[in-house]
Amino acid sequence: MTLDEFMSREFHKVPSVALFAVLGRNSVYAAVDRGELKAHRFGKAIRIRTPDALAWLGIDLNAEAKA
To answer: Percentage of the chain with pLDDT > 70?
Structure first.
């Protein structure tokens, strides 16, 4: 998944974040459980906002735009 594809959505499911980050789903779930990755729960469903996922991954789009 490319950055443009990832940025095109406001919210992502855990598998989508895992695919983008090249991590396993369990790693993303663990980060959510530890509070490292901010997530919103809708019943049993977990959704992660794109900016929160990028921040967790250390991707600063403002820094890239300035370069």
So the answer is: 94
Mean pLDDT of the chain: 93
Q: Is 65 helix (H, G, I), strand (E, B) or coil?
A: helix
Which distant-in-sequence residues (6+ apart) come within 8 Å of 21 by Cβ? 27, 28, 53, 57
* Residue that is written with structure tokens 């729960």 in the block: 41
CA dihedral 24, 27, 31, 33 (to 10 degrees): 110
Amino acid at 33: D
Give yes or no for a contact between 5 and 43, defined as CB atoms under 8 angstroms apart. Answer: no
